[in-house]
Design a protein that fits this description.
Length: 231
């Protein structure tokens, strides 16, 4: 079942070590077939060196395993919440990439300080509120998804324009139209976090890009007037 999507999700997972986005098994990618109402996700805790396309696990939008020999990623309930809340996304990534985790550890947004950020994120990447003790004890991974959705609702953010979040004192989740696009966004977030960390070390000023530069760079790659690349 969903053999093509399993290959796609496997390939996207294998990009994480290649792009230096994971240490050991600390990350996962999923991809969804909206018509089937099913998504494919990496199994939990399997080293990338031994991972196979056939190891991918098929899950429904209630979080029930539909196919697969292995246990799905421990973050599966977070992916379930995000697929249900953001019905246009096709893939999700979670990593513990160090610069993004640095901002999550400091409970700080990743600010849009330059065109590298503005090319992909239409504004700051938000950090969520911390999860409460009750949330963590109740249904930790599901509540992690809920807190991400609440962050976007409370701050009136468009999840298409800012396809990334930091979960407080945990790490980044990114998403996109496809699993590969979600991986791309995870790498951009890590690069932007590293640059921001360095810039904020050099200067304590507010160095946000002005709105006109944010608009110029975001919209040259997104929307009906985009002109970057080959069209
Ligand atoms: O955050 C954690 C563990 O603390 C997980 O996201 C990470 O290790 C990946 O777990 P899975 O191998 O996907 O179950």
């Amino acid at each position: 079942m969903l053999e093509k999507l399993k290959e796609e999700v496997y390939e996207a997972n294998m990009q994480l070590p290649k792009l230096d986005l994971v240490t050991f098994t600390w990350g996962n990618v999923s991809g969804i077939d909206r018509d089937a109402g099913l998504f494919v996700i990496k199994p939990s805790g399997v080293p990338y060196e031994t991972l196979q396309p056939s190891d991918m696990v098929v899950v429904n939008l209630k979080g029930e395993v539909v196919e697969g020999k292995l246990r799905p990623s421990s973050d599966t309930p977070t992916h379930v919440v995000l697929y249900n809340a953001f019905p246009d996304i096709g893939g999700i990534v979670h990593t513990h990439s160090p610069y993004a985790v640095t901002f999550a550890s400091a409970n700080m947004d990743v600010p849009a300080l330059n065109t590298t950020a503005a090319d992909t994120f239409y504004g700051d990447v938000p950090v969520s509120e911390p999860l409460s003790k009750a949330q963590i004890e109740r249904a930790y991974e599901k509540e992690t998804g809920e807190v991400i959705v609440k962050t976007f609702a409370d701050r009136h953010l468009d999840h298409d324009a800012v396809p990334a979040v930091l979960v407080s004192q945990h790490g980044p989740f990114t998403w996109g139209a496809t699993p590969a696009k979600a991986v791309y966004n995870a790498k951009v977030l890590e690069v932007v976090s590293q640059i921001d960390y360095q810039a904020m070390t050099l200067s304590a000023k507010d160095n946000h890009v002005p709105q006109y530069l944010l608009d110029k760079h975001y919209y040259r790659k997104h929307g009906k007037n985009a002109y970057y690349g080959q069209r």
